Amino acid sequence: MAILTLATQPFAGQRPGTSGLRKKVSVFRQPHYLENFVQSIFDSLEGSAGQTLVLGGDGRFHNRHAIQIIVRMAAAHGFGKVLVGRGGLLSTPALSCAIRKHGAFGGIVLSASHNPGGPDGDFGIKYNIGNGGPAPEKITEAIYARTATLAQYRISDAADLDLDRIGHTTLDGMQVEIIDPVTDYAELMRDLFDFESIRALFARGFTMRFDGMHAVSGPYAKVILEDMLGAPAGTVTNGEPLEDFGGHHPDPNPVNAAELIAYMASAQAPDFGAASDGDADRNMIVGRRFDVTPSDSLAILAVHATRVPGYRAGIAGIARSMPTSTAADRVAAALGVPCYETPTGWKFFGNLLDAGMATLCGEESYGSGSLHIREKDGVWAVLFWLNVLAVTGKSVETLVREHWARFGRNYYSRHDYEAVDSAAADALMANLRGKLASLPGQTLHGYTVALADDFAYTDPVDGSVSRNQGIRLVFSDGSRVVFRLSGTGTEGATLRVYLERYEADPARHDMPTQHALSGLIAVADQVAGIAARTDRHRPTVTT
Ligand code: G16
Fold first, then answer.
1. How many Å is the Cα radius of gyration of the chain?
2. What's the pTM value of the predicted model, to 2 decimals?
3. Is residue 113 annotated as part of the catalytic site, yes or no?
4. Per the record, a Pfam family (predicted)?
């Protein structure tokens, strides 16, 4: 076996977005494309020689091939050991868990998350640091800078590994261990949650459906829910990870998980429904004939946290991304703890968690998590809900309605305009920025603008500043409209419009969401000129 040094040329556009580098599979299949990015990661790390790297992905098309390449490049770079999930599989939260548990230097996760897979779908790669979380912007920008000058990469010429057999081997002097992808993670869940109460809940006849969406959460959900907690066989559906996710969008929202939503609305509906995404870090929670918004889910978990063993001592603070509803802020105020508002992207929670300033974090994009790892965590959220349902004996709907009665309801929706012409989307945002100074004081469709800005965040731990993180219009009654361009799309631009209206009066908690938000929807179009500028008259996806 030998280490080869191969000449290459930079590829344009290898800048990591909201969550790593995501591109079409066809882009990643170009010769040297993946290798260039991996070499740029390795070149940006200091002190990695002899250290451990964790490696795995969500099993999508191209996953196995990429794993083989990265292992051979890790050996050429001088890592001491690589831990690989069997079959090349590790969910994003399980990878974070493994980095922390094994004291690894970092990890590489291969996923394009909720984006579709298969040869015509998307692929992605993300580097996580030693705390288990996504690399902060300082590192992702260094990686990007390196991609622009790279002239060669190093790779072992060793033969492919057998990824399917648990055990140890060596490759050009580097140890390789194939680990069970579920074991470490399942142990962590058992330590955090009251498994006995949840087991008793299932034993009493409580029913649920977990939709794995043919993504990587299936094996985790099967082991934990069916084997460890005694949920009946068949509780987990679409539980086999497939390279193309069965042709679906593995995105747990009411649009892409329509099958689960329909089942939860049917006469056979079980007590509880949940789904997770491609790499198992997102979650959707559904009650019988009752959907729960991710923003409400975060707020409700926070209120009930002390019912759960892992959070018995209380929470130090809550963190939410800026577009996420302010429901969690009200809970934080009631608990007397701070609520931090960060830009979109899980990487912004890392410092707050490391510093012990926040315990729970969440985003409107169906992500929630805590300081147990440094990624959002789909199965964790499901277990948290199950724990709360088990110890309160209440239904999902009752818990949510009681929450609204106490704190008020934050009507919330996100409108996505996908694959919009990039130039038109940029012009729309530039036009909005140009208007910001003139908006405060104006009354639009009955809403008076109290604040209009382009969100900037100063990290309270390291003082780093992130600008241009979304246009925010905040109205005098606390309602908000936020505009952002997605940082995870792979086709044109995706415009996201986030709408939030607060309603304190329980007599007004039963309006259909889009109806309750209709005034704000009109404001958004009036201010941004969405229809005129994008030629889109309705969103592609409404969640
Ligand atoms: C990623 C990030 C999340 C973010 C989401 C949407 O999630 O980790 O923090 O909220 O993308 O980002 P954007 O609005 O820029 O598309 P995932 O599950 O795709 O890794």
1. 23
2. 0.94
3. yes
4. PGM_PMM_I
Closest CA to 447 of 518, 499, 373, 523: 523
Q: 347 alpha carbon to ligand 1 midpoint, in Å?
A: 10
pLDDT digits (tens, 9 = 90+) for 259-268: 999 999 999 9
Structure-block tokens of residue 288 = 């019988």
Whether the pLDDT of residue 489 is over 80: the answer is no
Q: Residues 435, 364: one domain?
A: no
Structural domain of residue 351, as residue ranges?
185-407
Cβ(488) to ligand 1 under 6 A? yes
Question: Are 123 and 227 part of one and the same domain?
Answer: no
Q: Which of 115, 148, 181 is the last residue of a domain?
A: 181
443 half-sphere exposure, CB direction, 13 A CA radius:
2
The last residue of a domain, from among 407, 435, 456: 407
Name the residue at shortest CA distance from atom 3 of ligand 1: 345
pLDDT digits (tens, 9 = 90+) for 145-172: 999 999 999 999 999 999 999 999 999 9
Q: Do 356 and 413 belong together in one domain?
A: no
Tell me the CATH number at 150.
3.40.120.10
- 48, 111, 113, 156: the catalytic one is 113
Rounded to the nearest whole angstrom, what is the distance from the C-alpha of residue 330 to the centroid of ligand 1? Answer: 24
pLDDT tens, 424-475?
A: 999 999 999 999 999 999 999 999 999 999 999 999 999 999 999 999 999 9
CA angle 25, 26, 31 (to 5 degrees): 105
